[in-house]
What we know:
By secondary structure, this protein is α/β, with parallel strands linked by helices. It is built from 17 helices and 13 strands. The protein folds into 2 domains: 8-334, Dihydroxyacetone kinase, domain 1 (Rossmann fold), CATH 3.40.50; 361-563, DhaL domain (Serine Threonine Protein Phosphatase 5, Tetratricopeptide repeat), CATH 1.25.40.340. It has helices at residues 11-21, 85-95, 109-124, 155-167, 172-184, 233-245, 267-283, 314-321, 361-377, 379-389, 394-406, 416-430, 435-449, 458-476, 485-501, 506-523, 547-563; strands spanning 26-28, 34-37, 49-56, 73-79, 101-106, 129-134, 186-192, 212-215, 226-229, 254-261, 287-294, 304-311, 333-334. Helix 3 (109-124) links the parallel strand 5 (101-106) and strand 6 (129-134). Helix 13 runs antiparallel to helix 14 (458-476).
Amino acid sequence: MKKLINDPRHIVREALEGLVDTTGHLALVQGENIVVLRDLPQPDQRPVAVLSGGGSGHEPAHAGYVGAGMLSAAIAGDVFTSPSVDAVLAAILSVAGPAGALLVVKNYTGDRLNFGLAAELAREKGIPVEAVVVADDVALRDIVPAERRRGIAGTVWVHKIAGAAAAKGWSLNKVAAVAARAAASIGSMGVGLGACTVPSAGTPSFSLGETEIEYGLGIHGEKGVRRVNMKPADAIVQDMLEQILAEIPGDTHQVALLVNGLGATPPLELQIVARHALATLRARGLTPTRAWVGNFMTALEMPGCSLSVLSLDGELLELLDAPCAAPAWTASARLTEERATVSAPAGLEVEFTLTPEGPLTATLQRIATGVAHALIAAEAELADLDAKAGDGDLGASMARGGQAILDLPPEAFHTPNQFFASLAQSMRRAIAGSSGPFYAVGLLRASRELADVAQPTPTQWQTAFAAALDAVMEMGGAKPGDRTMVDALAAASDAWHSALSAGTDGVEAFSQAVDAAGKAAEDTANMQPRLGRASYLGERAVGIPDGGAVAVTCWLQALRVGLKR
């Protein structure tokens, strides 16, 4: 287990201290893991206090939601463990006045017992207290009665709605009523792609196979209700929404969506989930008017997410939109009925004169298709190689380049000049990172070398290749020996030129160029990298051939195969 912690016994306190130290409007109660608003009015001037909490490990919940317009206090237990009765009572006494307090409680036995007893003790001291229990986990519909379902990410909406109602000066009964109505209008479901590790335990809470996922898990690292094989994101979203929408009231029109990460899912993936979730809601005749995407209630570092849907009316929407100063609360996106787009700018296309079909059209198309399939087939190999000394994106980039070749229109193959110009444009768009510009500039330079040449001689092909190499070196500054793609390209160019100068026929000369490139790519494994991401690794990259050089040999070998057919 590798975690940025000190002593597992002190992680909750130290985390709360870090939050309070970096958030000006918060304070810690001495001797308790309770975060409160720092500058509260005098007790007799305080509105209804809204409190929540539970086990830690769900950050930014719950302390991240303490702020004007949301929670007055948050009580943090140990990781995945309910706080004590005395801690909850101390929080109530710290922030509540005569207007009373509302406790927002997730439906776990420990939370219900500890918050419930604390409420009774506070009432004995003359403080009016009400509690709203959130049980939004629809995954348990066929397993336990509705009143025993877990409270998960939808709880955050209840915090916001109750806090906004309290900020308006509503009475305790009215705040409790709208919070309960909100809680009853939420359906949530989660999916886990892996387990999390509780610091005090030091081992994952459960294990999943490489291709397995868990549907219907809670937020405490526990297993789900159903284990299935991994699916595309859209299919997973569809499965979760099927369960959630089965309980949406039939007269629902407007809804809010919460896409919640469980701790280890990057924003990139959460946005993919949000995209299909919104499309699915609209396809069901619902109108999503607000959406939130991010980490709102996590399970430590668990990979996965949950979806929550809230049936909206005018009052709930107004409370969701009300001002809020809690550090972890973000304003929602006010959604339109369809995705907003603008027209692409003009001037992106490479301009060249279209020419009629030439004598090499069929040959160019056949050989290019072979190269494309070779690049696509090499994706895993190139990705693995690049991951050892770079960022691992080379395989996907070259596969996109291969697909771009397959997507070229028929007229792109009419002449070599037209082919290289079209391919340069496609590579520029398809391949990200440094490879795209390098291939694009090389192809453009080769295109110019072959202008008005319908059927180049072997020497003209080699001259165009050498011109492309010059363009790549000029743009990137690399030279042979720097351990980059230039090593393979330069070796191929030199061997090709030498073979032609010695009178070798064109196909055999090119074959020797391919062999030279392969040898040069292998030799990069023994070089100290001087350019590119591998240079950041220094000697640690030695022993691993350069991915860019290997990619060059991949398409050169495919070219050789095509030429010999």
